[in-house]
Amino acid sequence: MENKPPVANALDIAENVAKIIFESAYGNKIFGEIRDILLFGSTLTGKSYKSSDNKTPHDIDLLVIHDLFLLNELGMFTKYDNKTSRTVPDFDADITQQRNSPESILEEMGSKLGPNNYAFRERIDNGDREHPGLFTQWQGLRKVTGAGTIIQYGGVMNLAELGEVNIPIKEINPSSPEAVKEGYNHISEYFNKAFDEKFASKFTVNKVKQFLEQQGLSIKQTLDIIVMNQGLLKPGDDYQEERNLAMKQSGDPTFWNSIMVSGRLYNQLSGKFDISFNEKYPGSAELFRP
Question: Are 184 and 220 in the same domain?
Fold first, then answer.
C-alpha cells in the first residue's frame, strides 16, 4: 500500500464516518443494509497490523459488515479468466496489501433514495426505452423546425423524481454528422446539473467526501475499507466457501481473527466504537482461526 500522511484526530473522524454511513446508506428488507462497522488497526489500538513500529494512524481501517447485495462483489478480489471467459476469484490477491477503492465501496452504499443512485441517473440520462414515460419526455425535447433545416433541442422536462427542469433551446443544423449527439449532450448537461443539485448531496460517498474535505482530508488518503457479508459470520456450511476465499485472500492467515478480536464495533447509541466483536458475534472470530 502507498505511504500516507498521519491522520490527526483519527478516532473522532472514524466515528463521524461511521455515523454518516449508518444515516445515509441505502437499506431495506429486499436489498439488504449495512449491519455493522468494525474499527481496527492503529486508529483504535495505537498499533498497526501492517507494521509493528508504526503507532501513528496513517489511515482509518474499517470493516463494513453487511447484507447489501451491491457490496458482495467488493468483498473479494477477482480477475478475468480468459479460458472460461468468466470473472473468477483472484487467489494471488492479498487484502493486507491492497484494497478495493474506498470510494467505489461508498458509492455502492447509495443513499436512502436508492441502492445505487448513479444507475438511476444513467437510466434517465440515456432515455431508457424500458421506461416509456421517461423516454417520451426525452424525445419530446427534440423538435424539427424550418422545413427540416433546423433541429431544436431543449424545453421543459418534468419528472416525478426531479421536478421541472428547464433546458434552454439550442438550434442545431441536422446535416451535421454529430447533430444528434450534440443535441442530447446539451440536454444531458442541464439534466445532470439539476440531478446533482437535488440528489448528489444525499449520496453516502459525497457526504463522507464533504466531511473529510472539511478536515483537509480525502477518501483515498484517509480510509481503508473492506466489506464482508454478514453471512460469513454464521456457523455452518452455507458460507464456508466464501470464508475459505476470504482467508486465502488475506495473505496473513491470522488477519481476520486478529482484527475481529482486537477491533470494536460502532455503537449507534453512544456514537463510539465501544462494542466488542464477540459481544455481537459470539464465536464468529473462531471461524476465521487458521
Answer: no
